[in-house]
Amino acid sequence: MVLTKLTAVEARLFLRDPAAPFAVLAIPVGLLVVFGLLADGGRPSEDFGGQPALSAFVAPLAVTVLLAMLAVLLFPTTIATYREKGVLRRLSASPVPPGRLLTAQLLVNLAAALVAGVLALGVGVLGLGLSLPEHPGGFVLSVALGALALFSVGMLIAALAPSGKAANAIGLVTFFPMLALGGVWVPKEQLPSFLQHVADVLPVGATLNAVRGTWTGTGASALQLLALAACAVLCGGIAARWFRWE
User: Fold this and answer.
1) Predicted TM-score (pTM) of this structure
2) Membrane-spanning regions, if any (predicted)?
3) Which of 25, 108, 151, 153 is the most exposed place for a label (fewest CB within 10 A)?
């Protein structure tokens, strides 16, 4: 009951700031529309082994960037801001366990990711001819592990950042290099060979490339899935050890 009320409050606060919901909805949909229409991403492409760029790269990219943005930028900034303003300290002195607030925030962010992802897929399938993932079970597993790993990174940032501004700065410093090295700016196949291995173990790159594999039918590699699980355990463990309520 307490968790339900906290989640409802956090959802209202999330929706009260129009910039965050707009960005969450606009970025994945915008990526699909721009690349699907302007770049003619629905046609088979030699760069992706005869697969359309829309399903072989753009749609997995939209899903991954959505998760990374929520997990590494929005989520830790909110939690660190609550610490800075004393919200976590007041909760720690109340009968409500402070961990419920973290759970409520995670639920709100995951719900936002689900809504935005379904909307983007609907636009892609109905308006752009996007095909659905060929390995739906592997797709769900890859997205779930990717979300777990990325939100563990976000929790680590939230655990260490003393303020909302600091969390946002750390998140940006973490976010953009992971995009560059994870095969987001250019597909993994176009990176130097040694960076291709890096792309498969970083949280953003492992998520993107695992989702790409399940979408096109080749499947996610064991290395990518193990890297995501290891990241979740490592970052989650460090965050739990060093997280401060005050």
Assistant:
1) 0.90
2) 20-39, 59-80, 101-127, 139-160, 167-186, 222-243
3) 25
Kindly report, residue by residue over 75-116, the tens digit of the pLDDT.
Answer: 999 989 988 888 877 776 666 666 777 888 889 998 988 998
List Cβ<8 Å contacts ≥24 apart for 103-108: 103/3, 103/6, 103/7, 104/3, 104/6, 104/7, 104/9, 104/10, 105/10, 105/75, 105/78, 105/79, 106/75, 106/151, 107/7, 107/10, 108/7, 108/10, 108/11, 108/14
How much of the chain exceeds pLDDT 90, in percent? 33
Length, in residues, of the chain:
246
C-alpha to C-alpha distance for 167 and 244, rounded to whole angstroms: 14
Residue 62, classified by CB atoms within 10 Å of its CB into exposed (0-12), middle (13-18) or buried (19+), is: buried
Q: How far is CA 148 from CA 29, 41, 155, in A?
A: 23, 30, 10
Tokens 């498969």 belong to residue: 200
Angle at 108 between CA 239 and CA 78, to 5 degrees: 50
Question: Which DSSP state fits 177?
Answer: H
DSSP letter assigned to residue 46: G
Query: Residue 163 region, left (φ>0) first, then alpha (ψ -120 to 50), else beta?
Result: beta
